[in-house]
Amino acid sequence: MTNSRKNRLKDKGFEYLGVACSLFGLVVLAIFIGDILADGLSRIDWDFLKSLPSRKPEKAGIFTAWTGSLWILVFTTIIAFPLAVSAGIYLEEYGGNGRWSSLLEVNISNLAGVPSIIYGLLGLEIFVRIFKMGNSVLAGAFALALLILPIIIVATREAIRTVPPSIRAASYALGATKWQTIWNQVLPASMGGIFTGVILAISRAVGETAPLIIVGALAYVPFAPSSPMDEFTVMPIQIFNWVSRPQHGFTVNAAAAIIILLLITFVMNGIAVYLRNKWQKKINW
Amino acid sequence: MSNKNTEKIIEWLLRLSALVTVLTTIGIIWVLLSESVSFFQEVSIIEFLTDTQWTPLYKDKHFGIMPLVSGTLLTTFIAVSVALPLGLVIAIYLSEYAPKKFRKTVKPLLEILAAVPTVVYGFFALMVVTPFLQTIIPNLSGFNALSAGIVMGIMIIPFVTSFSEDALQAVPKSLKHGAFALGSTRLQTSFRVMVPAASSGIVVSVILAFSRAIGETMIVAIAAGQQPRLTANPLVPIETITTYIVQVSLGDVPHGSLEYKTIFAAGMTLFVFTFILNNISFWIRKKFREKYD
Fold first, then answer.
1. Is B99 in the same domain as B15?
2. How far apart are CA A119 and CA A121, in angstroms?
3. B50 inside domain
4. Domain containing B189 — which CATH number?
5. Which residue of A7, A281, B43, B193 lies most exposed, with the fewest beta carbons within 10 A?
């Protein structure tokens, strides 16, 4: 065999390896989703969604878990959204290239790499203890809000950066101030990108377990929270709790709860991808 | 006139929001440091670093962090040795070989792997992967580093792939065309031109994968066990730093007790590891950017 034929064979070989590796991850994902569906799908009914936790697996439901997740989601968004978008606007429009803004930049990239469990420790000491929020929805929401700040800030900056300078120049030429330009031109034009980032960040927050365990979310909560100061549990913690129990009935419950959690996650990611595509098509400056 | 004032006030409000990120960092370091300092007033730092047992929750208390560190590194190495080859081959394939259509479909599907909540992966490791591995390795424990590590590796494939692919895409096209013009195959071009040219970006992806795996919590908490043990054996139960923090938090530990402080000392150790790795990667990325711009 000549050298060049050998090389071409190797080349083809790597191509097949590439396809195989790309499909490997997807196949694993498919096996996993199939397994979960087989275990848990038959367990899902209205009672499962409406029932409170129980010692008997057949009677236990996820009502407190999904309502807790909803509370956390709403408050995390209320806290993180305005803060992160403002910070993103500041960095992109006001920050300049000085030492202060490069420090901010290094800092944000570092925060994005801090393990989520560390945000739990931060929340436990600052919000639960020093601000005396206790093991409440609010303390958990603050910890998660800080966790997703960097994600939304980065998305905001990228979205703002795609707005061409000519739009700003036109606005200034018409006599608008800097803030009027940002508020009336830049922000509307970048909203699609910002919302995509926010939805991805929230979807991340909904799946987070560790930080909320650290701030003291409980595995067993008899009632759904009725105020932000109440104790709470969330879907992932409920799943964790059921996975850790030996009885088969709880494993089935965990699988059923996972189906619902995955459904929420995938729907949110789907919306984010849809928004991004729609937004990218729209901006043909 | 009032317009000018509004502008000033708004700028200050925005600046304050940006300041929150700095306060978060200061908060993290302050919280970890203050509780760790108070921990080290009761436990000597030498015992912390050299004792080979970690039993703060037992009567015979030992405070050696090494078993937790070894557990963390063990699962991390397994995860990276799964994610690195797979992620890199996928990145090279997608960037140098794959038809556009394949790339456009497969990439977002792979990103799903990173979007799945980690507690779900924990279930997968414990209920599917471990029983499967037990049919091959009969003496594998129900909780073990191997299965948790493999599943964690699958989770971080998209990280390695997307960072490495970005690095490959950033290599000037002229290098690739030059190699093709000299008669190289795509394989030769990939491994002798593209990968070396993108090496710093690929190194960044590996470092970030390490950092991500070290901080990962729920997979190991569910599937790797809760037995701190200084071992490199992937078949037995171990405990990682993150699992220990979760284990203590699930129990009723009064504030101010030594047990309470241990989770901050453990958290500090974790933070130091990831902080160093993240900064190395940031530094490499900065140098790399200068090279091609």
1. no
2. 5
3. no
4. 1.10.3720.10
5. A281
- Contact list in B for residue A149 (CB cut-off 8 A) is 20-21, 24
Residue in A11, A83, A207 closest to B186 by CB: A11
The Cα–Cα gap between A173 and A170 comes to 5
Structural domain boundaries in chain A: 3-42, 47-282
Predicted-complex ipTM score? 0.92
Q: How far is CA A55 from CA A47, A59, A253, in A?
A: 15, 8, 12
pLDDT tier for residue B1 given thresholds of 50, 70 and 90: very low
CA angle B53, B55, B59 (to 5 degrees): 130
Q: How many CB pairs under 8 A join A and B?
A: 245
Helix axes B100-115, A3-40, angle to 10 degrees: 40
Q: Which of B185, B263, B279 shows the shortest C-beta gap to A121?
A: B263
Pair B80, B18 in one domain: no
* Angle, helices A63-89/B2-40, rounded to nearest 10 degrees: 120
Average pLDDT over residues A42-63: 87
Tell me what the pLDDT averaged over chain A comes to: 91
Q: Is B125 on the interface with A (CB under 8 A)?
A: no
The domain of B15 spans 2-41
Do residues B171 and B28 both lie within one domain? no
Report yes or no: B212 and B120 within 8 Å, Cβ to Cβ: no
Locate tokens 């992109």: which residue?
A92
Of B24, B86, B245, the CB nearest to A117: B245
Which pLDDT belongs to residue B291? 59
Residues B96, B23, single domain; the answer is no
B249–chain A Cβ distance below 8 A for any pair: yes
Mean pLDDT, chain B, rounded, equals 92
Return the higher-pLDDT residue of B63 and B108: B63
What is the per-residue pLDDT across B29-38, written as a single tens digit (0 to 9) for each? 999 999 999 9
**Which tokens belong to A102?**
């490069």
Using the predicted structure, report yes or no on whether residue B64 has a pLDDT greater than 70.
yes
Q: For residues A118-133, give the mean pLDDT.
A: 94
Confidence (pLDDT) at B37: 95
Judge if B94 and B19 occupy the same domain: no
pLDDT for residue A206 is more than 60: yes
The yes or no reply on domain A47-282 and CATH 1.20.120.450 is: no
Tens of pLDDT, residue by residue over B244-272, are 999 999 887 788 889 899 999 999 999 99
* Residue of B189, B217, B262 best to disrupt the A interface, most CBs of A under 10 A: B217
What is the C-alpha to C-alpha distance for residues A21 and B122, in angstroms, rounded to an integer?
22
For A147, name the nearest residue in chain B, comparing CA atoms only: B24
Residues 6+ apart with CB under 8 A from A256: A39, A40, A41, A43, A44, A48, A62
Whether B34 and B154 map to the same domain: the answer is no
The total domain count for chain B is: 2
